[in-house]
């Protein structure tokens, strides 16, 4: 026999409710003990600050490309630019709907 997909009707005898108990009182949060990981964490903060102060691009490469574009030596094909932009967009996130 196949069970119904919808809700099951109940009768008066089906109204059993579990007993509700009082919640335990909250305790104050304990302060964690200092560990050796804390000096490493402060070192990571310094590394993050150092990396944030430097631009994430190769300035020399950008200037070479700009010179090549200005001199007409850099091949700019509109179809290639469009293809790369579309590929970048499609790989941006896996949640995009087609």
Automatic annotation (TrEMBL):
<feature type="domain" description="Anti-sigma-28 factor FlgM C-terminal">
    <location>
        <begin position="40"/>
        <end position="86"/>
    </location>
</feature>
<protein>
    <recommendedName>
        <fullName>Negative regulator of flagellin synthesis</fullName>
    </recommendedName>
</protein>
<keyword id="KW-0966">Cell projection</keyword>
<comment type="similarity">
    <text>Belongs to the FlgM family.</text>
</comment>
<dbReference type="Pfam" id="PF04316">
    <property type="entry name" value="FlgM"/>
</dbReference>
<keyword id="KW-0804">Transcription</keyword>
<keyword id="KW-1005">Bacterial flagellum biogenesis</keyword>
<comment type="function">
    <text>Responsible for the coupling of flagellin expression to flagellar assembly by preventing expression of the flagellin genes when a component of the middle class of proteins is defective. It negatively regulates flagellar genes by inhibiting the activity of FliA by directly binding to FliA.</text>
</comment>
<dbReference type="GO" id="GO:0044781">
    <property type="term" value="P:bacterial-type flagellum organization"/>
</dbReference>
<keyword id="KW-0805">Transcription regulation</keyword>
<keyword id="KW-0969">Cilium</keyword>
<keyword id="KW-0282">Flagellum</keyword>
<dbReference type="GO" id="GO:0045892">
    <property type="term" value="P:negative regulation of DNA-templated transcription"/>
</dbReference>
<dbReference type="InterPro" id="IPR035890">
    <property type="entry name" value="Anti-sigma-28_factor_FlgM_sf"/>
</dbReference>
<dbReference type="InterPro" id="IPR031316">
    <property type="entry name" value="FlgM_C"/>
</dbReference>
<dbReference type="InterPro" id="IPR007412">
    <property type="entry name" value="FlgM"/>
</dbReference>
<keyword id="KW-0678">Repressor</keyword>
